[in-house]
Write a structure and sequence with these properties.
alpha+beta, 171 residues, 9 strands, two-stranded antiparallel sheet
């Protein structure tokens, strides 16, 4: 027969370990860069659409290209709007009836266009907007103050606006 005092002594370390695991488990499973994990959008699906390409502008004045097919408005994408500016390759097809093929995710209506009328929209391989501000240059959103950076700019960069008069007074 086990004495009650002995079973209580064994229970306390086990309960303490269980409590510790409940506290530590979320931290161990966290993303190491501190950003929340992106939701899985599911597999990319291929779709071919035929219709007229229409152009409008977003809130920042950049061109948005769409096509209505079977009552659904599809947003056509040739890559990031900031990269193309006024030189988006889809602009050549505005007002024309074309066949576009590309990929999308289930439940979404943005088509990443690969071909227009059977012709590739861009060359194969790494997209021209890849590589960050050092590779793309001043049109990249991370380009600040005339040089590549992390997008903070001098005003928001940690430690850049310290009061230097205190440091020189201490010398």
């Amino acid at each position: 027969m086990v004495r009650p005092a002995l079973s209580r002594r064994a229970f306390l370390p086990v309960a303490g370990l269980a409590a510790l695991l409940l506290i530590v488990a979320p931290v161990l499973g966290a993303n190491p860069n501190g950003k929340p994990a992106k939701a899985d959008k599911g597999p990319e699906l291929t779709r071919t659409l035929t219709g007229n390409v229409v152009s409008s502008e977003d809130a920042k004045g950049r061109a948005v290209f769409t096509m209505v097919v079977d009552g659904v408005t599809w947003e056509l994408s040739a890559g990031p709007r900031w990269f193309w500016g006024a030189n988006n390759p889809l602009a050549a097809f505005v007002g024309k009836s074309v066949e576009v093929t590309g990929t999308y995710h289930a439940g979404e209506t943005e088509l990443d266009v690969a071909t227009v009328n059977g012709n590739p929209l861009r060359t194969a391989g790494r997209p021209p907007w890849a590589g960050g501000p050092k590779a793309v240059g001043a049109s990249h959103p991370g380009w600040k103050d005339g040089k590549p950076g992390k997008g903070h700019g001098r005003e928001n960069a940690p430690g850049q606006l310290k009061d230097k008069s205190k440091a020189s007074a201490a010398d």
